[in-house]
Design a protein that fits this description.
By secondary structure, the protein is mostly helical. The protein has eight helices and no strands. The longest helix has 25 residues. The C terminus is likely disordered.
């Protein structure tokens, strides 16, 4: 558990699009002890993870900072590719209109907020959250190719492998965002 912030930092530094994995990483924090005390462990965890990611990324980025920014974040402004496997490309073929580029980011942000509030605090839940978030991110993004979906398959297989029957009984202590119960 003490090495977990370092591991999360290395995980976040491994790909530029893993920014949406920051919120699910909060699953690893203990259940909320109370309002004044939640910020200390969260800030400590985030600071260690961020410093670890910076320690790994900064030496490479400083060699050619402009090239690093262009290669890692220039994809946001790139034109859509019509050989991608995603809903926006399908819409472009069917209706000859492509949805906005921010759609994938917005959907992934909403799914990550819901995942943190609804999933139990287990490693299997983290892997499931990452898999589900990136399924929506790639499905509603403009540049998702078939090899991107291997990451999702691996995350969901990791969640299935790490799951235990007892984990379903442990729920998050976070407030319920969707208090409605299904109609019986």
């Amino acid at each position: 558990p003490k090495a977990l912030p370092f591991i999360v930092g290395l995980f976040l530094a491994s790909k530029q699009y893993l920014a949406f994995a920051v919120l699910p990483a909060l699953i690893f924090l203990p259940a909320r002890p109370g309002p004044p005390y939640i910020w200390r462990p969260m800030l400590r965890f985030a600071l260690i993870a961020a410093l670890t990611a910076l320690a790994v990324t900064l030496p490479v980025a400083l060699r050619d900072f402009h090239g690093f920014i262009a290669s890692n974040f220039g994809i946001v402004n790139s034109p859509p590719r019509f050989d991608a496997v995603s809903f926006p490309v399908f819409c472009a073929y069917v209706w000859e209109r492509m949805p906005p580029a921010w759609l994938g980011f917005a959907v992934a942000a909403m799914v990550s907020i819901a995942a943190v509030h609804r999933l139990p605090r287990t490693p299997a839940a983290f892997a499931a959250a990452v898999g589900i978030i990136y399924l929506f991110f790639f499905a509603f993004g403009r540049l998702a190719f078939t090899n991107y979906y291997y990451f999702i398959i691996a995350a969901l297989c990791s969640a299935a492998a790490a799951a235990s029957p007892q984990a379903g009984a442990k729920r998050s202590a976070a407030p319920d965002l969707f208090p409605c119960s299904p109609v019986t």
